[in-house]
Amino acid sequence: MVGIGLTLGSAAAFARPPGCNSGSAATMYDVGVANGRSLTARAWAQVNDCFALESFYNLIEDALDLLSVAPGSGRLAACRIGGTGDGIFQKLLDIDNTCTNQCIQTGEQIGDVMARLYCLISIALGGIAPAPQFIQGPLGICGINMRLTCETTFFATAQSYPGCGPYTRGMFEASYRTEMNNACYAPPPISIGALAPADSPEIRLAELWSRMNIALYTPAE
């Protein structure tokens, strides 16, 4: 199972930082988390295609990097911004997990059905000639999960299907392998565009997070 590999990959990583764990600072952090999750969910609803997962993830990262805020922001702003970032990454992890499961399930379904179809036709006709082979293009996260699962399932189903064994080897091995390759062809990753670089004298959000790291993770006086 292949995942997107976010740096904030566990629930513990999203606990409130010490500087944002009480009073108004905690409220600002929590509201930020809710904002981040909501914004990411609504953005994904516009895409809603697991083959665009990498492109969507890159778009969100670019947006965060290009976002800027006024200099001199205090602890409350830092907590709100930090919470927003954590909320965004929480939702990205949810999306990644959903897509991983969906792409694996799709591969299983295709592999099983196409293997049984190959076996039924081969047994009925005493074997079939090899088909032209599809050339697999670049694979993204969803494509890798789908194809690997499809091939594993195709192999298992064909090997266990009554009477199909002889049509997976020997003079029919080329037909069998070509059919598995073609059945498990996965679409390439989808690009959803990119953001133009921002030109602003204000502090970039990523830079602000770095500057405020001490404030976020140091208990308030």
Describe this structure in words.
The chain has helices spanning 23-47, 53-66, 75-125, 141-160, 173-183, 205-211, 213-216, and strands at residues 68-69, 203-204. It has 221 residues and is an all-alpha fold. It folds into 2 domains: 17-95 and 197-216, no CATH class; 102-183, no CATH class. The protein has a two-stranded antiparallel ribbon. α3 (75-125) runs parallel beside α4.
Features:
elongated, disordered N terminus, 221 residues, disordered C terminus, 2 domains, two-stranded antiparallel ribbon, mainly alpha
Describe the secondary-structure layout.
Blueprint (H helix, E strand, L loop, with lengths): L22 H25 L5 H14 L1 E2 L5 H51 L15 H20 L12 H11 L19 E2 H7 L1 H4 L5
Antiparallel strand pairs: 1-2
Structural class: mainly alpha
Spatial strand order of the main sheet: 1-2
Silhouette: elongated
H-E string: HHEHHHEHH
Mean pLDDT, all residues? 82
Q: Give the termini distance in whole angstroms.
A: 45 Å
Task: State the share of residues found in helices, binned by percent.
Answer: 55-70%
Q: Radius of gyration over alpha carbons?
A: 24 Å
Quickly count the domains.
2
Largest sheet, in brief, is: 2 strands, antiparallel
Low-confidence stretches: 1-12, 198-221
- How many helix segments? 7
Classify the beta-strand content into a percent band: under 5%
